[in-house]
Write a structure and sequence with these properties.
mainly alpha; Serine Threonine Protein Phosphatase 5, Tetratricopeptide repeat; 3 domains
């Protein structure tokens, strides 16, 4: 499992799938039922990141059944949270909130702080996707606080990205910028494009255009790095398209806008899941509000979303 988790944390999802599949086979052969459930959950995370949401849900559901049958409460909480994070992509927001609320209750019951942070973050993410940025911000701030306290890098950075987005939706670009510019000794590569992207969007809203372009250039580089490892990485594809769009507007660069249009088409070819489409439209809306020349519309950026 360790090797699979390492590759997953680097964004090497196909390699992680291979390793988790091997581990799952061994667990099944040796009668390690608990381990089999864990590996199924890990496989779900990989397919989720690749936009294969129905496959991820099937794997999470199987893993959840094993966790409940074996009484492994920690895994039960984690798998409920995984399902809760998956359903917003399909536009099923209330279902996501209900699942994450169950995960949160179990995490608090057993004192598992990292899963508590994950669950709060996932609830906040679901509220954010549903359009309630105030409720989302409250949940995400709690997630950040817990994750920072226990030194859990992955949930801390994920919650910070979503909290920045909530603040942007609430019209508080300064707060969004503050959330994304904290000093951090450790990084989580899959979250780097989003962190830089939200920082760039906050700077755009604050009319700090040169800094915005720099942050989005960093988002683009981080996204390209992840896509070199897994070319169907949904989050990286979306971040790449948005990171190209904003500098195109700021610099009135038609060639960059055309490149952004191609990036959106590439992302759309991987998934048109309704929640992903809605998220992309909201984020693109922040950028198009600054596009006085209509450059993005003219080049077809976001067309079909």
């Amino acid at each position: 499992m360790i090797w699979g988790l390492c590759h997953h944390s680097l964004g090497e999802y196909r390699r992680a799938i291979d390793l988790h599949t091997q581990a799952l086979a061994i667990a099944c052969e040796t009668g390690d039922y608990v381990g089999a459930g864990v590996y199924l959950g890990m496989l779900g995370l990989c397919h989720h990141s690749l936009g294969e949401y129905r496959r991820a849900i099937d794997l999470y559901t199987e893993a959840l059944a094993i966790a409940r049958e074996t009484g492994y409460r920690q895994s039960e909480s984690a798998r409920l949270g995984n399902l809760g994070l998956c359903y917003p992509n399909l536009g099923e927001y209330q279902r996501a909130i209900d699942l994450c609320t169950q995960a949160l209750a179990i995490a608090r019951e057993i004192g598992y702080r990292q899963v508590e942070a994950n669950a709060l973050g996932n609830i906040g993410r679901a509220w954010l996707a549903s359009g309630d940025a105030n409720q989302a911000a409250a949940m995400l701030a709690q997630a950040v606080s817990i994750a920072d306290t226990i030194g859990a890098v992955e949930p801390a950075l994920e919650a910070r990205s979503w909290l920045a987005w909530a603040y942007l939706q609430l019209g508080d670009a300064a707060a969004a910028l503050a959330v994304t510019t904290v000093e951090r000794e450790l990084t989580f590569p899959p979250e780097e494009p989003a962190m830089h992207m939200f920082q760039g969007l906050a700077l755009l809203e604050l009319d700090r255009l040169d800094e915005s372009v720099q942050a989005l250039t960093e988002a683009l580089a981080a996204a390209d790095g992840l896509l070199a490892l897994a070319d169907r990485n949904v989050a990286a594809l979306g971040a790449r398209a948005l990171a190209l769009s904003c500098p195109a507007v700021v610099t009135s660069d038609q060639a960059r806008a055309a490149e952004a249009a191609e990036a959106f088409a590439r992302a759309r070819a991987v998934t048109r899941a309704p929640g992903v489409v809605a998220d992309t439209r909201r984020l693109l809306g922040i950028i198009t509000a600054h596009d006085q020349a209509g450059l993005l519309t003219a080049t077809g950026c976001g067309s079909g979303w």
